[in-house]
Each structure stands twice: as C-alpha cells, then as structure tokens.
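Agenda item 2: MTE complex prediction
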Amino acid sequence: MQINRLHGVSRRQIVQHGLWGAAAIALARLPLRAFADEEAAGDQIIPFLEPQAIDAGKATLHWDALKDWITPMDQFFSVNHYGTPAGVGEGYKLQIDGLVEKPRSLSLDDLRKLPRKEVTATLECSGNGSSKTFIGAVGNAKWTGTPLAPLLKDCGLSPETVEIAFFGADHKIEKIRGGDYDQNFARALSLPDAQRDDIILAYEMNGQPLTAGHGAPLRLIVPGWYGIAWVKWLHRIEARDHRLMTRFMAKDYVTLRGEELPDGKIAWKESSVGPMNIKSMVAKVIRRKEGGVTIFGAAWSGLAPVKAVEVKIDEGEWRSAKIDDAHREPYTWRFWSFDWKDAKAGEHTVVSRGIDSKANIQPTSDEPAIKLKKTYYEANQQWPRKIKI
Ligand code: MTE
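Presented output:
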C-alpha cells in the first residue's frame, strides 16, 4: 500500500504513531458526512452577503470552508500578547515551586516519561466574536501531554494552597501605577479547577511537537475554558495561598457585566474570564446538487455540554438542527446541520443558537447578558448571516 500521505497524514506521523494512530488522525480529518465535501458532491456554497474578513497574513478559521472536525494547522488562530519568545526550548526546564514540600525542575524528557494523556478540546479566544472581523479565533485540536493533577500531588501541596499559578516565558515591561515592572504572562486556576483530571501539560498538538507559535515546548490545556487560561511557553508553576492579581487575571481579560436585581437595580460585577459560554455559528449554506438547501455549523461550550442547536430563518420560529454524534469529546465542538426544506428564492437572514445541558441559551446581542456586558470578552452572542438564494 502506498502510504506516503493518507488523507493529510504524513509518513513521519505513521512512523511516530503507528498505522492505527495515523489512521485515527486521518479519519478525524475526513470531511464529516454531515459536512459535505461540496466540490466532490457537486454541491454549491451559497456565499454570505457579508463575507468573513480574512487577513491574508494570519491563520484563522475559514468558516465557509469548515469540514474538518480537527482544525487544519494553517487555519488555527494564534494570540501572543508579548510576541513569541525566542529560544524557550534550549535547556528547557519546568519549575514547580511555591507551597510544595518537594519543588521540582523537569526537563521535556522528564515530562515525556510521565504518564501520557490525549485530550481533544476546542480552543476559543474569549475575544472571538467581539467584532465583525474577528470570528475565526476558534479551533479544535488533539493535545497530548501529561496530566497536571498527579504531578502536583507528587510535589506535596501544602494544605494552605488555594490556587495554582502558571507562568509563560514571554514577558514585557508593564506600567503599573506609574512604575515600570517586568512581568511574565501569567494566569492562575483555583486548586479544585487545577486538580481536574483532564487538565494536561501538552507537548504535542495533533500528533506533532507543539510549534513555537502555539507554545513550544510546553503549554497548559484547560478544556472548556477560554484560551487565555491555556498558558503557552509554560516554564513555572507556583502553588499559592493567595490570589494572583496580575494583568491577565485581574486587569485584562476581565468581564464587566451588569446583573438585574429583583428590585430593578443593576449590580455591576467584574469577573476574570473563565469557562466558555454556550456558542454556535452558522458556518456555511449549501445548495444541494439534487435540490434543497442545507445549513451547516458548529456549537461549543465549557460550562455544560451542548444539548441542542436551533436555527431561525428570517423572522420564523426556532427549529431544531441535527447534531453530529460521531465526533465528540466532552470539550470539543459539535458539528450540526439543518435541512432547509422550504427555502425560497430571495434574501434571507440565517442564525443559530446553542443550548447547553444547564438550559443556558446563547443570547442575542439585544439580551441583557450581552447588552449589559461592557467589555470585549466572552462575546457569545448569536451571529446572524445574510444570504441570497
Ligand atoms: N500564553 C502565553 N504565555 N502568552 C500569551 O499571549 N495568549 C493566550 C493563550 N495563552 C497567551 C498564552 C490567549 S489570549 C489565547 S486565545 C491562546 O493562548 C491562544 O492559543 P494559540 O495561540 O495556540 O491559538
């Protein structure tokens, strides 16, 4: 059998992961049946009247080309606040210290010898959806590394520990109250959050060593949380007995939202960006060769699993979409489709909304959850799209 490339999987991947591992990657990359390969099937994409703005120099998800459950690397967005630090891999050591009995310093080889765990999870930047030109900052990938919780346990956490902080190797002078201070990128998780068994320290993405842009040699994977928590170029983990209040915990990536109280007053609260809110997107609308129109999209969440997706056309009723059951893990996006049987010629608005298992419904931009959100992050409002049939 000629196995130089098997649906995008290289001979190197086959050697590294064995034929079955490589076949699994290839299968995940196969266009889903529900997500037709339009060219192959002779179907036709109906273009959106407001196409997604794509910056040629930047990797971003191309919604109307969506068909792979695992996002192709050239479409996987990247966000680097302090640039990509150089030379992080040379003589790399991960420090674990703070309130631990046995501080540790681990090389990448040490980490690779620890139990290996794979997690497929969707990564979304919490700013995604905050403007018309920023809607492709989401992607789904298979992450491989070692679980964090047993490593913390081995270090002997002090009973006073309330929080685990993660520091990237990237740093910058930050102006704080008029002074200049060199700070590393840092985020923290409460102890119970950090002890979840699906949180890993990853050294691979989709079966390949992490690239520099995605945090090589090691990054934190926090399935179900917005990307800000997934610290790249991880070089230090600290157990703490009080809260970390650095830029990306307490000043930036903070959501200011008003909550309506029973007496009609509004309580304004700031909270650090955490788990992903329920969200869905219409990806593309297709005219079938054999007749009829199908709408495709994706839905994801972090607070509770996606339970349903509904579609609304113009001012019609919300109608149920069909969710793909074949491709799913607890914190991955779900693909969905909707057969639009009564599609008529003319201009239309199509929109979807996700509903999670705790009955959270993706809001419109006019609902209080979004209207009373005064900051940029956690932009999970519905995203209407216009087409002409
Ligand atoms: N980690 C470090 N060290 N520095 C960063 O700037 N950006 C965060 C997160 N981790 C960031 C980081 C943000 S805001 C996002 S959305 C994700 O990384 C993006 O991950 P990616 O670049 O691999 O897509």
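Discussion summary: The first helix runs from residue 11 to 29.
Owner for follow-up: CH.
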